[in-house]
Amino acid sequence: MPAEVDLADLYAAHHLSMVRLARLLVDDLATAEDVVQDAFLGLHRNQATLRDPGAAVGYIRQAVVNQARSTLRRRRTARAHLRVAEPDVAPPADAGLLLSEEHQQVLQAVRRLPERQREVLVLRFWSGLSEAEIAQAMGVSRGTVKSQASRAMKTLQTYLEEARS
User: 20 to 30 A Cα–Cα from 70, which one of 22, 117, 120, 131?
Assistant: First the structure.
């Protein structure tokens, strides 16, 4: 019988980083928290099938990425079919004070990237994952991670040059 994962410890150690990851992917804190809760709930339901308890963090990370994708897909579908737009979520009033102008420009440019490119950059630079870990979390090959990262950096550079001119 495989060793069980201590979900309470795993949650305490990784909840905040997973919410940060989800927040960058879905751009909405409440939805990000729901995504992470669903990921932990999925691990709870399926922990008996988890062969390696050491892989639980990777499982959670991959579940967060997949849940974020599903959430964004459901949003797009609802907007397209119901023509119901969500209210724009404005940044906090003190966001300008907390982030430098350059940091704000970078975040705005990252938000404009296509979904896969944004995921690769978020996982690499905000979460500090290796190419192999990103490939596992996204369910793609390392080559795809490299090409998406390269395209994302070129596109990001173009967006930032536009913002400066």
Answer: 131
Whole-Å CA distances, 60 to 13, 42, 67: 12, 9, 10
User: CB-based contacts of 123: which residues, under 8 Å, 6+ apart?
Assistant: 21, 65, 129, 133, 134, 137, 138
Task: Show the beta-strand stretches assigned E in 10-105.
Answer: none
Per residue in 93-119, pLDDT (tens digit) is 655 555 567 777 788 888 888 988 988
Neighbours of 147 (CB within 10 A): 15
Read off the pTM: 0.62
Q: Which two tokens stand for residue 124?
A: 């690499």
The residues of the chain scoring below 50 in pLDDT are 1, 84-86
Residues near 84 by Cβ (< 8 Å), separated by ≥ 6? 78
